[in-house]
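Extended Data, panel c. Modelled sequence:
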Amino acid sequence: MERSGDANQERDPGATPALPLRDAPAHGVDRGDRVHEFRSQGLRITWSRKRCIHAGVCVMSLPAVFEPGRRPWIDATGARADAIARVVARCPTGALHCEALDGGAAEATPAANVVHVARHGPLYLHGDIEILDESGVVRLADTRVALCRCGGSANKPLCDGSHLTCGFRDDGAVSAGAGVKNTGAVSGALVVRPEPGGPLQLDGAFTVESADRGTMLAGDSARLCRCGQSDTKPFCDGSHQRTGFVSR
């Protein structure tokens, strides 16, 4: 399979320019990312090339709106605004967002935070999510995020689709009772702090679920592997120290 950075050429924004960088962080936009904007009379859709890993939910759900190979590949006039908004809210990486221009309701922040371990793929986070950089500064606040766990992403800690080409294999199992601590947090944002050269530290109430959703563990603290080498995936076992994992 093609790496996402190459395959994204199928998703051509056409003449739609990338929006200028903002002075202050915007919800749903990774720091330093220039997203593309597509408009209809009542809707504004934004798309991040860097965060798109071709999960395919949009293409399969609304091909009249999302059509790889067309230029531009997104046609915001191709369906009703409410139908587009429902599909955009299912984009698991957060590459797609939309805003109603007629005063319609914005995408609601989920009441619960969920970490889904994808089979042979990333960690999909859904909820009230804050991603920090390695210095502890917020780089992204969003409701939907995909995090790299193969170790190969060029956009760490976010997934860029490198698991498709680096041979990463993991069935997404979660061992009951392992790796998740409970210190008493009950609500609020799930904060993800990437440790330099090490794992992803999660703090805040969440549930981590296996790829088949057969195992679900609730807690508020965990260290998740992002070097791709742990024997206790999705949890860290210290393999990053043995392998010399480089996080930048």
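The CA atoms of residues 60 and 66 lie 8 Å apart. This feature is highlighted in the accompanying rendering.
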